TrEMBL record:
<comment type="similarity">
    <text>Belongs to the TRAFAC class TrmE-Era-EngA-EngB-Septin-like GTPase superfamily. EngB GTPase family.</text>
</comment>
<dbReference type="InterPro" id="IPR019987">
    <property type="entry name" value="GTP-bd_ribosome_bio_YsxC"/>
</dbReference>
<dbReference type="InterPro" id="IPR006073">
    <property type="entry name" value="GTP-bd"/>
</dbReference>
<dbReference type="GO" id="GO:0005739">
    <property type="term" value="C:mitochondrion"/>
</dbReference>
<keyword id="KW-0479">Metal-binding</keyword>
<keyword id="KW-0460">Magnesium</keyword>
<dbReference type="InterPro" id="IPR052279">
    <property type="entry name" value="EngB_GTPase"/>
</dbReference>
<dbReference type="Pfam" id="PF01926">
    <property type="entry name" value="MMR_HSR1"/>
</dbReference>
<dbReference type="GO" id="GO:0005525">
    <property type="term" value="F:GTP binding"/>
</dbReference>
<dbReference type="InterPro" id="IPR030393">
    <property type="entry name" value="G_ENGB_dom"/>
</dbReference>
<keyword id="KW-0342">GTP-binding</keyword>
<dbReference type="GO" id="GO:0046872">
    <property type="term" value="F:metal ion binding"/>
</dbReference>
<feature type="domain" description="EngB-type G">
    <location>
        <begin position="189"/>
        <end position="362"/>
    </location>
</feature>
<dbReference type="InterPro" id="IPR027417">
    <property type="entry name" value="P-loop_NTPase"/>
</dbReference>
<keyword id="KW-0547">Nucleotide-binding</keyword>
<protein>
    <recommendedName>
        <fullName>GTP-binding protein 8</fullName>
    </recommendedName>
</protein>
């Protein structure tokens, strides 16, 4: 008997503890809209003729309906898509349902499903040449026709992009080697294009994007500046070789000057150097110093502005005009045409692929 009473007392204590936990739980989630609240706020519309009381009973769950609310962790739904703050709902799962509750929960889950859908059409994506999308913002021509080195049609660009897709044995796209200095560079007769610029500007990301159709070809990128320490050579069949150079600036390799200067002096088959500028941040003073250095070697080069997905078109236009000014006033070996790309969204990349094919004469082969 005493055993029984102590067992009952323990049971009562446990029940009280459980009650307090549940209370805590509901206090924690009290700011989450219940289906009742949602019904009141028109998120779920009650059926015609339903009284508020019925509605409360249906939705709040007087009959111990098991409704589990779970906060989306850090305001993200499971698919990882960020919800708009105004459409921030807890996820809802029902275990026992009445038909009207089912219709409510279905409506609710439909809303959640719509919110969780990945974005389909690319919003604000650029056209073939992203510079043309900036033209409506200004009356003077940003890049006059006469200064366009390439201005291909869509079909021509399509042909060029085929070069960046592997085709069995005939056209292999592969990583060749990493060279700590030009003495270790591979011997080859194919025309070469070297990608240069400040560390973290997005050189490796651009290469990754150029080769995104190539399975098993990994181009390593990093958020940390100074990631690429050696010159990495990638062969695009017999058409060309692309070189991912280490960046200058923060955490640049100790022998950076040796690697880049010697490469620019020695490399006979270098057809074009690509100098990358951050399109979002604009041209910086250290970029102009680097441009002066490249000018000294009298090698042809082109300016490519990347990260165009990161800024508004007005800011981008301002930065493009500043770059065009630098080209006009301070350069001789630089091509007048500036290319706009995003290594993340791929905007402008097909045009750049065409440009690479054009300067290496790959479309004639
Ligand atoms: N939004 C956006 N981010 C980019 C773009 N290109 C590169 N990034 C980001 O910028 C960071 C640096 O990119 P990397 O490609 O590693 O830069 P890097 O020029 O190769 O840098 P180093 O190897 O250090 O010289 C990464 O976090 C990229 O995701 C772009 O076009 N858009
Ligand atoms: Mg890199």
């Amino acid at each position: 008997m005493s055993h029984f009473s102590s067992f009952t007392r323990r049971g009562v204590i446990q029940l009280r503890w459980l009650g307090s936990r549940l209370n805590c739980l509901f206090t924690k989630y009290r700011d989450i809209p219940t289906p009742g609240i949602m019904a009141q706020t028109n998120l779920i519309k009650p059926k015609k003729g339903q009284t508020t009381q019925q509605e409360k009973q249906l939705h709040i769950g007087k009959s111990h309906r098991s409704v589990l609310y779970r906060k989306c962790s850090s305001k993200r739904c499971q698919t990882g898509h960020k919800l708009h703050p105004t459409s921030y709902f807890p996820r809802l799962q029902t275990f026992e349902t009445s038909s009207s509750f089912l219709s409510c929960s279905r409506r609710f889950s439909n809303t959640a499903a719509v919110l969780a859908k990945p974005p389909t059409a690319k919003k604000n994506s650029f056209s073939l040449n992203p510079i043309d999308d900036l033209q409506p913002l200004i009356q003077v021509p940003i890049l006059p026709q006469i200064e366009r080195v390439v201005d291909p049609t869509e079909e021509e660009v399509q042909r060029a992009t085929q070069l960046f897709k592997p085709a069995a044995r005939r056209h292999k796209i592969e990583f060749v080697l990493s060279a700590p200095n030009p003495d270790y560079a591979p011997e080859n007769n194919t025309p070469e294009i070297a990608i240069m610029g400040r560390s973290n500007v997005g050189k490796s990301t651009l290469l990754q994007c150029l080769f995104r159709e190539v399975p098993d070809l990994e181009v390593k990128t990093s958020k940390t500046p100074g990631h690429t320490k050696m010159a990495n050579f990638f062969r695009v069949g017999r058409a060309m070789t692309l070189v991912d150079m280490p960046g200058y600036g923060y955490r640049q390799p100790a022998d950076f000057v040796h690697i880049v200067e010697d490469y620019l002096i020695q490399r006979k088959n270098l057809r074009m150097a690509v100098f990358m500028v951050d399109g979002a941040a604009g041209i910086a003073s250290w970029d102009t110093v680097a441009i002066e250095m490249i000018e000294d070697f009298k090698r042809p080069y082109v300016l490519v502005m990347t990260k165009i997905d990161k800024v508004s078109r007005h800011v981008l236009l301002r930065n493009v005009l500043a770059v065009r000014q630098v080209i006009k006033e301070r350069t001789k070996a630089c091509l007048p045409q500036v290319f706009l790309v995003s290594g993340v969204t791929g905007d402008g990349v097909p045009l750049l692929q065409y440009f690479f094919a054009h300067v290496t004469d790959s479309l004639k082969k």
